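Re-run with default settings, no changes from the original entry. Doing this only to confirm the output is reproducible before filing.
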Amino acid sequence: MYVAWRDLRFARGRFALIGAVVALITLLVGFLSGLTGGLAAQNVSAVLALPGDRLVLKPVGTGAPTFADSSIDGDTISAWRNAPGVDRVVPIGIRQTRAEGPEGTGAVAVFGLDAGHGVPAPRRADEIIVSVSAATALGAAVGDRVSVAGSAFTVSAIQDDLSYSHTPVLSLTPDAWLALDERLGGTGSATVLAVSGSPAWDAVAADTGTVASTPLASLSALPTFRSEIGSLALMITMLFGVSALVVGAFFTVWTMQRAGDVAVLKALGASTPALVRDALGQALVVLLVGVGAGIGLTAALGALAGGALPFVLSPLTTLAPAVVMIALGLVGAAVSLGAVTKSDPLTALGSTR
């Protein structure tokens, strides 16, 4: 057993310290990742639930299209429907406003589309479907009346908890949504088209003055999503960098402290690759214990905070950050191995050369 592995047995205090630091950094990264996932879901879950292979938006002027500005008229809808290779076109109207229920009011996003196309929609103009969070905020149940922009609708169902730009989704029929949009000063034109099929996407988009993107790529058309996720992703990246620096600095100091012992081992015939594996194995054990503890704390706290915070507990927000933390920690530890590879056996044997 080499020096690094013996340290694991005898220097428990130092390993407990670096393990605790790694666990805390992992907790920060994991919790921030879960919060990022929760905020993203509150921002875009309704967009990702829209049917179709591509979502079509119409830009204003020469700028990039956004859901807030897009307005698609009947001629554009007809052009997409008549394009070769198009199987289905679903016009969808989106309007943010306020709604009033039996026990409360709140901001909502009202979607207008035909029933049977991904996002649940009512079949009658006097009915409305509300999401779980909207039903909670408005105190509404099936059969209750909900008022939106001066019009009352009967709740026909409570759908999955879909959100759009951090507002819960309500669904109306296209005719009811058109009347609502006109009352709020809009034109009644669709906001986005959900298109299915295999047309020449770029050619049809160029002919109609629209932009066709996959549902995932279209998320950039939500300005709040870009700014919010960009800021959180930057913080996560910085935490990853801090973790690599902390682990690298710790093992650099530790490796320098045992440089003499390493030189003795080399003088006795230990190969440099074997000593490198020894040191990296030590770092891997510390990282596995620290990261494992941090992910366990993240899972426990995330489960407790799930009801109060928009937190997503999934492999993407736990296992993925854990793997990255371990990889970066090993990179930081590998950088510190100069003392191992450059240790002079003659120094350990007392040579003055």
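The longest helix spans residues 12-48. The mean pLDDT is 84.
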